Amino acid sequence: MRTRPLKVALLGCGVVGSEVARIMTTHADDLAARIGAPVELAGVAVRRPDKVREGIDPSLVTTDATALVKRGDIDVVVEVIGGIEPARTLITTAFEHGASVVSANKALLAQDGAALHAAADENGKDLYYEAAVAGAIPLIRPLRESLAGDKVNRVLGIVNGTTNFILDKMDSTGAGYQEALDEATALGYAEADPTADVEGFDAAAKAAILAGIAFHTRVRLDDVYREGMTEVTAADFASAKEMGCTIKLLAICERAADGASVTARVHPAMIPLSHPLASVRGAYNAVFVESDAAGQLMFYGPGAGGSPTASAVLGDLVAVCRNRLSGATGPGESAYAALPVSPMGDVVTRYHISLDVADKPGVLAQVATVFAEHGVSIDTVRQQGKDGEASLVVVTHRASDAALGGTVEALRKLDTVRGVASIMRVEGE
Amino acid sequence: MRTRPLKVALLGCGVVGSEVARIMTTHADDLAARIGAPVELAGVAVRRPDKVREGIDPSLVTTDATALVKRGDIDVVVEVIGGIEPARTLITTAFEHGASVVSANKALLAQDGAALHAAADENGKDLYYEAAVAGAIPLIRPLRESLAGDKVNRVLGIVNGTTNFILDKMDSTGAGYQEALDEATALGYAEADPTADVEGFDAAAKAAILAGIAFHTRVRLDDVYREGMTEVTAADFASAKEMGCTIKLLAICERAADGASVTARVHPAMIPLSHPLASVRGAYNAVFVESDAAGQLMFYGPGAGGSPTASAVLGDLVAVCRNRLSGATGPGESAYAALPVSPMGDVVTRYHISLDVADKPGVLAQVATVFAEHGVSIDTVRQQGKDGEASLVVVTHRASDAALGGTVEALRKLDTVRGVASIMRVEGE
Ligand SMILES: NC(=O)c1ccc[n+]([C@@H]2O[C@H](COP(=O)([O-])OP(=O)(O)OC[C@H]3O[C@@H](n4cnc5c(N)ncnc54)[C@H](OP(=O)(O)O)[C@@H]3O)[C@@H](O)[C@H]2O)c1
Ligand SMILES: NC(=O)c1ccc[n+]([C@@H]2O[C@H](COP(=O)([O-])OP(=O)(O)OC[C@H]3O[C@@H](n4cnc5c(N)ncnc54)[C@H](OP(=O)(O)O)[C@@H]3O)[C@@H](O)[C@H]2O)c1
């Protein structure tokens, strides 16, 4: 074993960074044995230098992250600051000054992954980010390496723990969205400003990263269709139950049937209770992968939290250090397939639509005609009525999102349709 | 991209090998793009040269596997013959003649993994075998790489599809073992001689491989306690149901509480229906991993079959080819922890014991005394009796296997105990 240590600069020492530092200390011998050389924490960049940080040598702490990554003797920079800047500039500066990088930054990777990979390649360095998607769950490495000899057709996952906690609460207690969110906030599962989670931004970033890796193409954040879960109601859960389903916020990346394009989207959807993703409870994450040869695989575990995320960061750190010792680099970006990303209108799936309609004869015929005119074929219809008001629940066969959109627009124009109470996609069948 | 192809020798062209060859042809462009060089099938060794093999150029087929691996121009040998010899000698010969090796051979890896890894290291070559455990499910790579910065404490899995199919059938239909086995055989899930599966030999080989990788130590096949599932009865399933459990054949690798030793075992066990492994249906496999930082992870998918297994083989092939191009080798055996493997008697778990007893006063007191004398504490007892015959179902708290063994031996000596109908471990709580 080499005795000269590999030097690690830690950028950020918050929820994730503090756990990375802790495990680097407590597991130092194991890390050294697994890497083939000891690793040394050479510097820790933070915003507030005077905060007491247990187990961190104060002489290592600096607010000058730029100077730290420019030192020139750093082997690996671990970026766990988050956000776009200064993280982006720090990472590219690190490459230019000879370091490889491990990051947990999904927002940055989803937005600028291509440029960062290019910077890594130019400098012959590694960029690893297993922790950026689904925390502790090994997903990037299995997709990029284990399935490298296979053709992935679909990735379907619960990749945001906050929203899964909320939806699970709504499902199990009948609570409304706000009540469930309040509980998530009180228990620390939701941040004070939960927008990134509940509006699906966080999941969309992960979908972009996953789609790119799964299909060997480039998927930008803007390519991902995104719908949050703030409008999911207790009534939606009741409807889902009647269908033998539950509701999950899903990230779905698909290769088109002809193989010539891909789609990526995040939205709430009904899935059958028999689907393995339906039983993913609380803040857990799980991702389903379908490929030509392997068939259906599922990966399940904690999608966030300081120590699970640190586990993923440290797995990458070991890999990058090993690469460094052997003078090699790991598999970088693989976007050779260069497939176009189709718009949401091209996505084909099933739909569950609840309509408030006048309770009089002929309404069903009118509604059915509209579906037929738009080429959307109906699977089942359920009518419930009393006192001149009625509701109509329509479940369709597979149709394009564009066709469904046209159908709904036309339905809204019918005199007998008082309103479209909800539209939800049905997945996982 | 390099235009000179990497040369692959395929040893064996049966269920798995024929799929490897097929995908190498159909996915040639993707493989080339992902590796950075084309791969060429340079030779195929089989036993029966005259068998028609669709898609295989007959001029590549040979019965002289030894000559093929000695050719000297082979970059990667894919060993999918199975069994100990000639596979073992072919693999070491391959290393000596400059090739790296990808294998799906769990029996060989479990028996001779250490020697094969040593041969790979001596020659500076790679030995990869993702397909040897749980077919298509990425497991070796996540354990060896993704969790390389973490400390794994437990691996608990369903790693044999044949037995899971049989047990699932017994559970869902109430069938007995023989009936379920017959159905598995008729559907091609069980081989004509099912011994390796139903007696747990196959699962034990996988347990040895998993324990070694998870705990960075060496676990030999002989170190694995093994009990098959041929004696599981419909009555056991009925008892399991009463406890809110089902029965699975589990491979369990554990680090002792003090961290100083490990155990590895394969046996049928009751697990709660709420445990994610309880809902693994049919011939699917799933493995639960518990580690310090990541917490609980689960990996699920098809554990066997030609094309799923080929997916894993090809993932390894891509990795090994990439290593070859960069002049590096991947992470090899990591056995630095050198932990002793404790005998089964040291394993601590819970037990479900059914006794046939005389239906007279004082029997329960006698039985309870025996448990107490052996330091095995009882959680619940259920008594059912009629016509002078009764049964007593005891569920214990956690106790060592040695203590339980002593208890059962003493119980058998009681006049009032007519027989010990079944003993089953209870796991996953
Ligand atoms: N938390 C999770 O469960 C989780 C899961 C997966 C991925 N991630 C990702 O991991 C990254 C870090 O998340 P986190 O939860 O650990 O965040 P956090 O708790 O807010 O910590 C951020 C850290 O960065 C430091 N920092 C902020 N701005 C800085 C600057 N300009 N220069 C130097 N240091 C700066 C902060 O310093 P102070 O300590 O002085 O404030 C703090 O130590 C993010 O990309 C996040 O998306 C987090
Ligand atoms: N099948 C699965 O689902 C699965 C899953 C995971 C792992 N595996 C592992 O994969 C390996 C292969 O399994 P398999 O199911 O593909 O076996 P298989 O169908 O029996 O194929 C074995 C192949 O090896 C050839 N062979 C046998 N002895 C040979 C010799 N002395 N020299 C050259 N070739 C020889 C056979 O030739 P002929 O074609 O001429 O008979 C045949 O092509 C085993 O280690 C197995 O444990 C299999």
UniProtKB/TrEMBL annotation, chains A, B:
Residues annotated for NADP(+) binding in this entry: L11, G12, C13, G14, V15, V16, G17, S18
**By its UniProt entry, which Pfam families does this protein fall under?**
ACT (PF01842), Homoserine_dh (PF00742), NAD_binding_3 (PF03447)
Query: Does the keyword tRNA processing belong to this entry?
Result: no
Pathway it acts in?
Answer: Amino-acid biosynthesis; L-methionine biosynthesis via de novo pathway; L-homoserine from L-aspartate: step 3/3; Amino-acid biosynthesis; L-threonine biosynthesis; L-threonine from L-aspartate: step 3/5
Q: Which PANTHER family match?
A: HOMOSERINE DEHYDROGENASE
Q: What does this protein do?
A: Catalyzes the conversion of L-aspartate-beta-semialdehyde (L-Asa) to L-homoserine (L-Hse), the third step in the biosynthesis of threonine and methionine from aspartate.
Q: What is this protein called?
A: Homoserine dehydrogenase
Organism name: Streptomyces griseicoloratus
